[in-house]
Specification:
Blueprint lengths: L4 E12 L4 H9 L5 E13 L4 E5 L6 H9 L9 E4 L3 E4 L12 H11 L4 H15 L14 H14 L4 E5 L7 H16 L3 E5 L3 H7 L2 E6 L2 E6 L1 H11 L23 E9 L7 E5 L5 E9 L7 E8 L4 E6 L14 E8 L7 E10 L6 E14 L17
Parallel strand pairs: 3-7, 3-8, 5-6, 6-7, 11-17
Antiparallel strand pairs: 1-2, 1-4, 8-9, 10-12, 12-15, 13-14, 13-16, 16-17
Helix pairs in contact: 3-4, 4-5
Length: about 400
Amino acid sequence: MIQAIYLQSVSKTYKTYAHGWERLREILTQHPCAQQFHALHPLTLHIPHGQVVGIVGNNGAGKSTLLKIVAGTLTCDIGGECTVSGRVAALLELGSGFHPEMSGRENVYLSGTMMGLSIEEVDKVYDDIVAFADIKDFMEQPVKTYSSGMFMRLAFAVATNVDPEILIIDEALSVGDGTFARKSFDRIMQFRDAKKTILFCSHSLYQVEKICDRVIWLDKGQLMMDGEPSKVLTAYNETLNAKIISPDPLKQTQSHLPSDKTARITHIETSTEDQNGDNLNLQCGKSNLMIDVDFIYDPTLQPPVIAVTIVRKDGLLVSSASTHNDGQSIASNSAGKGKVRLIFKEIPLLKGNYIVEVFVICEKAIHLYDQNLSVASLTVSQEGIEQGVVTMPHQWII
């Protein structure tokens, strides 16, 4: 069976020199003076056609190196084999492949021909590219005058309108406004539904788990794990460095409705039976935690999904809940306004300090519209000396 992407013992090593003159010394004396930096250790990877593969790892893990090798913009070390079957469209560095002095229109044709299209084939998709990028008035201007958002619009439009068999995305969707991000994720899902092969690199673990069929975890250039998204991401999440969160609750109220295909949080309130505010004291197994979320959204969209997570202060994700996962649909509102309340009854958290986080996500629970990562600080106390994070229902039979 022909694989879409076939990597066999692929690696990438760079030479680094402590001083510039050591490079000349090495040439003259034929004596190695360089340090070896292994950006990617030997990796064997087979990806079949139609699979959506997520790639996760900390900065410097080798993710971009791997994607560049697959995209053909970087060669691997001697001895490795990289075979790609099908037309590849890659979104790597912002605007990579664009010539800054050339106009947007000229760069569309340049990029198209570099991907293997004829001039006639680019002619057929040019109008679609311009329409998706929505920068028609700037297509005759040099791309060096473009903002980062305009760069991204055009690069994404080109990559996804040339009908690639393989799409590579490296954190590219972090650039751009809400409307563009929404369109981009819709386009990615169209590719997924069309059984295209996708390599998706992102620090958003939620998006990776939602979109991908398989996840690869890299660390310091080595393959740590390869398998089902839930298993790989659980293991990866456990190794992430603890994050420091300073409570800074959302206080503002936004009165105007978004008209840019997005949604926003307007107010959040956390409370118990006898307390309100952003610093709450709870009793394990006794206190009820209420979280009220007000939001607004573009009324031309379907109502969004609301999600809440509880995170221990050392960064451990303890629990999450969302209207999507719980099968709760928010009713449409012609005014584009909504409000939900989430109740954690007799909260089972054991003693410790926790943070409440709130998210507003698109109706498919993929694209993040808005978030507040420091809604409230929870201090939980308990009776007894039970250890752990939560108390689980249990029964002794003796």
